[in-house]
Amino acid sequence: MTHPLVLIADSSMRISSSRKPE
User: Fold this and answer.
1) pLDDT < 50 stretches in the chain
2) pLDDT of residue 21
3) Where is this region: Disordered (predicted)?
């Protein structure tokens, strides 16, 4: 079972990476 916090952290990290102009 995955914790909701992990999902939130993953989403946050993904959004941060997506927003990062590379």
Assistant:
1) none
2) 66
3) 1-22
How far is it, in rounded angstroms, from Cα 7 to Cα 11? 6
9 residue type, one letter = A
What's the CA gap between 20 and 22, in Å, rounded? 6
Residue 14's SS3 state is helix
- The torsion angle over the Cα atoms of residues 16, 17, 18 and 22, rounded to 10 degrees, is 130
pLDDT at 22: 60
Q: What is residue 15's DSSP assignment?
A: H
